[in-house]
Design goal:
Blueprint: H1 16-25, H2 28-34, E1 36-39, H3 45-50, E2 56-58, H4 63-76, E3 84-87, H5 100-105, H6 109-124, E4 130-131, H7 155-170, E5 181-182, E6 185-187, H8 206-213, H9 215-222, E7 227-230, E8 234-235, E9 238-239, H10 244-254, E10 260-262, H11 271-274, H12 280-290, E11 295-296, H13 300-310, H14 316-332, H15 351-365, E12 367-371, E13 385-388, H16 414-421, E14 427-429, H17 442-451, E15 454-460, H18 481-489, E16 495-500, H19 508-513, E17 516-519, H20 527-535, E18 605-612, E19 616-618, E20 622-631, E21 637-647, E22 658-667, E23 672-680, E24 686-687, E25 693-694, E26 698-707, E27 710-719
Parallel strand pairs: 1-2, 1-11, 2-3, 3-4, 4-5, 6-7, 7-10, 13-14, 13-15, 15-16, 16-17, 19-27
Antiparallel strand pairs: 8-9, 12-17, 18-20, 20-23, 21-22, 21-26, 24-25, 26-27
Helix pairs in contact: 1-14, 2-13, 6-7, 6-15, 7-9, 12-13, 15-20, 16-20
The protein binds beta-D-glucopyranose.
Beta-D-glucopyranose binds near residues 132, 185 and 468.
Length: about 725
């Protein structure tokens, strides 16, 4: 028996009633099957599909195999329910874009959305229906390797980027036949892992949870994300996988999320190691009670759910709710209508557009950190350029931490990029390896540098040094790279450092001594070309940091939206013994090396005439602010103007600054524009002493400027009620 299965094997399921009818026909084993996800290497997969014991498959990218499995599910299983095919498409499928941390530095929401749509389109054409992205964990600890996968430290920006990614992913389609589900992850506060170690304990207050870690998820749900992935970590002693308060009270009741909640990889099984369950049966029990709909690869649901229901330990209603959500998802994605995916080769793919988008995003992700004496840009006909460093010809590292179906063959190295953009090829030598301390070409590097007029250093981390389970305690340049940089600097020639990494590196010596520094991250397929275009001024840098760069690992976490404390350090930073009994260090300033929002251009911008159009307003009105922004340099450029506020007195303490709006503005030389910001006062709130979200009446400061440390300052007041004489 099946539901209106057509002769071709297609299975239609169009409305709620049909879903209810299908649910009514299912045995407990078939229900547990829908809630069971297996890895693609599972040995008895075909039999499990035939007997309805699998609802989804993880990490399979072969479209022929996917179509084969779908055919078995739809045509040979009793109820003919198609499978969900889930993959980690984090920053590209075949066309690799910069890592998400880098993409966020573009602050270009349309472009991030476009990249997500391209990635999802490529994935869909190879049979993927479910994408485990975006990762929207706020991350303020660059030791954590997964900072590479997110949008950085800021709540507002992360929410905007989350929305752009969900939009892009869920708007991908193949001539209207199928859609892709986004899966924002990891719910929640995974980025708050103690000491930056992956999977580590999290212990944060409920207010921090609500004000910092939940808002990006709210944003993703507001954008219509079809699913969510639950995080590995515990919060205050309860792993998210078994946390009813998180998954039922907050996720379902408060946020009203109706999509599918999937566990992270083997996270139900990991409840044993957490010490929260004594066996897999108990782990399954606690997870279904908490609200996990799909068990990712731990087999706990398929093995124990039927018995747990039969014994009365689990109310079948919980299982039915989960299965219903899964069937609705399959219906929304068009899988019941048509499970067959056209192999990519049979569809024309505009790869030119994809590669151009990858180049534009790679360019816009790059952050010019320092440019003393306008050393950059170089002239394209600059002679005697030496490219030195282990990442100069490296392609694989530029792909970044989630390669998916990408390939190093498609990547343009920095050497290739420079050779294409400059009139003559640079002379290249590695100098040293990234990790390995031995180096055959150190001396040769010095010899080549001696003959050069300008030296470009290609240094940083390999792709394998960030991402999941790739945390680092020391964030300096690994291997002998620092030694190489110092030896080359000692020659007294113009030196440009190009930092390629999956996280902010801690390189205070370079920040002080090297005149020009470019943070190029791991920029994907077109990274080398993008860096070369920036170095030679074909593109003007516009990226701005989304994660503060520390001066020292000892400052971590260092982020701009910190609290003032009762003994704030005053001035621009705190040096040794100058300010005793303040919240500071004896040995280094409080400020980061480079602040959140920082990023230079080859032109200059001036901010003038900040005007508050609404000096007093109520919590239901909009704050309206204008500022004049002008391009005071000689090149066209793009500036991201940032608006920050501070709520001066609250019934709980508030951060010293919070980003509430930004605008990317393109200006020609000499051009001036009036920028107008409209910020709903309702977004200036927080969870108060009674844990209610509200915008409190009172005085605020507002800044508009080029980064979190600079800007024009003004004030406004939020009133309890508008005074009677005002309309
Ligand atoms: C990661 C997730 C990922 C999942 C499936 C886990 O280890 O934490 O981000 O989506 O594996 O590959």
């Amino acid at each position: 028996m099946n539901n209106s299965r057509s002769q071709s094997g297609e299975n239609t399921l169009r409305n709620d009633k049909q879903i209810d009818d299908l649910l009514a026909k299912m045995t407990l084993e078939e229900k547990a099957g829908q809630m069971n996800q297996v890895g693609s290497s599972k040995s008895d997969i075909t039999d499990l599909i035939k007997t309805g014991r699998i609802g989804s498959i993880l990490s399979i990218k072969d479209v022929k195999k996917i179509n084969h499995f779908q055919q078995i599910a739809v045509q040979q299983s009793r109820l003919g329910i198609p499978l969900l095919i889930g993959n980690d498409v984090i920053h590209g499928y075949q066309t690799l874009f910069p890592i998400p941390l880098a993409q966020a530095c573009s602050w270009n929401l349309e472009l991030v959305e476009k990249a997500a749509r391209i990635a999802a389109t490529e994935a869909l054409r190879e049979g993927t229906s479910w994408i485990y992205a975006p990762m929207i964990d706020i991350a303020r600890d660059p030791r954590w390797g997964r900072v590479a996968e997110g949008a950085g430290e800021d709540v507002f920006l992360a929410g905007q980027i989350a929305r752009a990614n969900v939009r892009g992913t869920q708007r991908a389609e193949d001539a209207g036949k199928h859609k892709v589900a986004a899966c924002p992850k990891h719910f929640v506060a995974y980025g708050a892992a103690e000491a930056g170690k992956d999977y580590n304990t999290v212990d944060i207050s409920e207010r921090t949870l609500r004000d910092i870690y939940l808002p990006p998820f709210q944003a993703a749900f507001a954008e219509g994300a079809y699913s969510v992935m639950v995080s590995f970590n515990e919060i205050a002693g309860i792993p998210s996988t078994a946390n009813r308060f998180l998954l039922r009270t907050i996720l379902r009741d408060e946020l009203g999320f109706t999509g599918v909640a999937i566990s992270d990889y083997y996270a139900i099984g990991e409840l044993l190691a957490h010490g929260l369950a004594s066996d897999m049966r108990e782990a399954a029990l606690k997870s279904i009670q908490a609200g996990i709909d799909i068990d990712m690869v731990s087999d706990a649901y398929i093995d124990y759910l039927p018995e747990l229901v039969r014994s009365g330990a689990v109310d079948e209603k919980l299982v039915d709710e989960a299965v219903r959500r899964i069937l609705v998802l399959k219906q929304k994605l068009g899988l019941f209508e048509n499970f067959h995916m056209e192999p990519a080769a049979e569809i024309s793919t505009d790869t030119k557009e994809y590669r151009e988008t990858a180049l534009q995003l790679a360019c816009e992700s790059i952050v010019l950190l320092k440019n003393e004496g306008a050393l950059l840009p170089l002239r394209p006909d600059q002679k005697k350029v030496a490219l030195i460093g282990p990442l100069g010809k490296d392609k694989a590292s530029l792909l970044g931490c989630w390669k998916c179906s990408g390939s190093a063959d498609r990547v343009e190295s920095l050497y290739e990029g420079l050779s294409a953009v400059m009139t003559s090829e640079p002379e290249f030598v590695e100098g040293c390896h990234v990790l390995n301390k031995e180096s055959a070409s150190f001396k040769q590097a010095i010899a080549i540098a001696k003959k050069a007029e300008v030296i470009i250093l290609a240094i940083g981390e390999t792709d394998a040094m960030s991402g999941e389970a790739h945390s680092r305690a020391h964030l300096g340049l690994p291997g002998r790279q620092q030694e190489l940089v110092e030896a080359i600097h000692a020659l007294g020639k113009p030196v440009i450092a190009v930092l390629m990494s999956g996280r902010p590196l801690v390189t205070p010596w370079i920040a002080e001594h090297i005149p020009a520094i470019i943070q190029a991250w791991h920029g994907g397929d077109r990274a080398g070309r993008a860096i070369a275009e920036i170095l030679c001024g074909r593109a003007n840098p516009s990226g701005k940091l989304v994660l503060s760069i520390p001066r020292s690992e000892g400052q971590i976490p260092v982020y701009y939206a910190h609290k003032n404390t009762g003994r704030p350090a005053t001035g621009k930073g705190t040096t040794q013994f100058e300010e005793p009994f303040r919240s500071n260090y004896l040995d280094i300033p409080n400020s980061p090396q480079f602040p959140f929002g920082h990023g230079l251009s080859y032109t200059t911008f001036a901010y003038n005439d900040l005007e508050i159009k609404t000096p007093s307003l109520t919590a239901v009105e909009n704050l309206i602010v204008t500022v004049h922004l002008s391009n005071t340099g000689a090149r066209p450029g793009i500036e991201t103007a940032q608006l920050y506020v501070q709520d001066l007195v609250g019934n709980i303490t508030r951060p010293v600054k919070e980003l509430k709006a930004f605008q990317r503005v393109a200006l020609s030389p000499g051009e001036q524009k009036t920028i107008r910001f409209e910020v709903p006062a309702s977004t200036l709130g927080f969870h108060d002493i009674q844990m209610r979200y509200q915008t409190e009446p009172g005085d605020f400061k507002v800044w508009v400027g080029p980064n979190s440390a600079e800007g024009l300052e003004e004030k406004f007041t939020i009133m309890a009620k508008r005074a009677a004489f005002q309309i």
